[in-house]
Specification:
Elements: H1 3-11, H2 17-29, E1 36-39, E2 42-45, E3 47-48, H3 49-56, H4 60-69, E4 80-81, H5 85-92, H6 109-120, H7 137-149, E5 157-161, H8 167-174, E6 180-185, H9 188-201, E7 206-210, E8 227-230, H10 236-249, E9 265-270, H11 277-289, E10 292-303, E11 313-321, E12 351-358, H12 362-365, H13 368-381, E13 386-393, E14 399-405, E15 408-415, E16 420-427, H14 437-444, E17 449-454
Helix pairs in contact: 1-2, 6-7, 7-8, 8-9, 10-11, 13-14
């Protein structure tokens, strides 16, 4: 590894070494768009900050830290990034490699050029109140192409939740063999533009619906589509709501089976800063909670202008619906847009785990006394104080044991016929020595087979 990359990694922990090398490669080879920066020696070519953001997909704050970490090699500028003489000297002798900023480059140059001509002929303007950041012309082409390449266009009913990027028009121009496209959008300007363009270009089977996703979905559209594409507000409330609406839109019938979403897809775009990985984790948890399979995730698939906080980029999640998919949520937070300064509501601390134990000795499962003793030993090992206990018998020798703890509760149910038991543990304070809970349970319940899951 190059020494300069090694040193920069120390102050840029969010960046991979190859990403750092890739940025240096861009600076060394001046791969910008020809912007000029002013310095004491006159005009020379340099990169604007937002150009580097667009080239790399790095968030604005990440770039700011990177510039600071190599300030001795850069000319002083808030708006531009340009090597000084020392930077040129050091980098010119290095064999730097370019970095592949996205693993997938899909699309159609002719279609992107056509979209550029169309977009420039419209009066559409980004509306901050709807979290609109227009995608690049190439991205609009790519969004259409990925739907087609995944087999989600020909003969399909397509729903697009929000289409200020004019993906419906791109599909109509290049991939017209869909059954129908319905564009749902809150912005009348977007809908009117799409209607006008579809008419002028002779595009068939594209319809528009004025719809605020915070309102109930009209029954007419429930279960009417094979695939949904959406680029929602990048808040957990926005993602959850649009996923829920997407699930409501798709057809539940698969291979003659009712209530089965198999073979249906949601194409979701989501972007976030490196500094907030917990937000991305929350979004991925939502996908799993809905019973959606992440078939593909393509980092930095889509590019935008004006969204520097997320690197002018978003990732594509290709979500496959399954027989276990459910629409779960009702709108509990009307503030779904980022401009509303949506803050994650703080909830009191919770440690919540579930455990499934298999191959538990049947003599243990049949003994209330031994089960209670095993739980008591587990609680003692992890400093969980039991204040009350209740045991309930069920038919077929099943038992439910409820332990009220000083900090919450532990619930256990047994299945004698399966030699199995389930434990649900929730506490309002951190659990002592939690990393060894599985070992303790294996020991106390005399088994070697367990599944553990952290809920929150």
């Amino acid at each position: 590894m190059l020494e300069i990359v090694r040193q920069l990694k120390k102050t840029n922990p969010d960046l991979k070494e190859r990403e750092i090398e890739g940025v240096l490669f861009i600076l060394k080879n001046n791969l910008g768009y020809g912007a000029r920066s002013e310095n004491n020696s006159g005009s020379s070519f340099g990169l604007k900050n937002n150009e580097l953001i667009t080239l790399t997909g790095l968030p604005k704050e990440t770039l700011k830290i990177f510039k600071s970490s190599m300030s001795n090699l850069l000319e002083k500028s808030e708006e531009y990034i340009k090597l000084n003489e020392e930077g040129i000297r050091q980098l010119s002798s290095l064999d730097l490699r370019p970095y592949l900023w996205t693993l997938v480059d899909i699309g159609n140059p002719e279609l992107a050029e056509k979209i550029q001509q169309i977009r420039q002929g419209t009066l559409l303007k980004e509306k901050r109140e709807f979290d609109q950041f227009f995608a690049t012309y190439k991205t609009t082409s790519s969004k259409a192409a990925v739907l087609y390449e995944k087999g989600m266009v020909d003969g399909k009913n397509i729903a697009i939740l929000g289409d200020d990027d004019l993906v419906s028009i791109a599909l109509g121009i290049k991939y017209p063999n869909f059954n129908k496209i319905t564009v749902f959008d809150i912005d009348d300007a977007v809908l009117n533009t799409i209607k006008t363009l579809a008419s002028e270009l002779g595009l068939k089977n594209i319809e528009t619906v004025n719809y605020d996703a915070r309102k109930d979905l009209p029954h007419l559209f429930e279960g009417a589509y094979d695939v949904v594409a959406t680029d929602p507000p990048y808040t957990s409330g926005g993602i959850s709501l649009f996923l829920n609406r997407g699930i409501q839109l798709v057809n539940k019938t698969s291979a003659g089976r009712s209530n089965d979403y198999s073979g249906k897809y949601i194409f979701l775009f989501y972007g976030n800063s490196f500094k907030s990985p917990e937000k991305t984790l929350k979004v991925q948890e939502l996908m799993l909670d809905y019973g959606l399979l992440i078939e593909d995730k393509i980092d930095k698939f889509a590019r935008y202008s004006g969204a520097e906080s997320v690197g002018n980029a978003s990732s594509l999640y290709v979500l496959k619906l399954t027989p276990f998919t459910n629409n779960l949520s009702v709108l509990s937070k009307p503030e779904i847009y980022t401009f509303e300064n949506v803050k994650e509501e703080r909830f009191p601390f919770v440690d919540h785990y579930t455990f499934k134990l298999f191959k538990v000795p049947k003599n243990l499962l049949m003994s209330k006394k031994d089960l209670a003793k095993s739980v008591e030993s587990f609680c003692a090992a992890h400093k969980l104080k039991i204040v009350d206990t209740k045991i309930t018998n069920f038919k077929k020798s099943g038992l439910s044991l409820t332990f009220i703890l000083s900090t919450s509760n532990l619930l256990m149910h047994t299945w004698l016929e399966f030699s199995a038991l389930h434990i649900d543990l929730i506490t309002c304070t951190p659990i002592y020595n939690k990393e060894n809970m599985v070992k303790t349970l294996l020991k106390e319940f005399s088994t070697s087979s367990i599944e553990a899951r952290k809920i929150e």
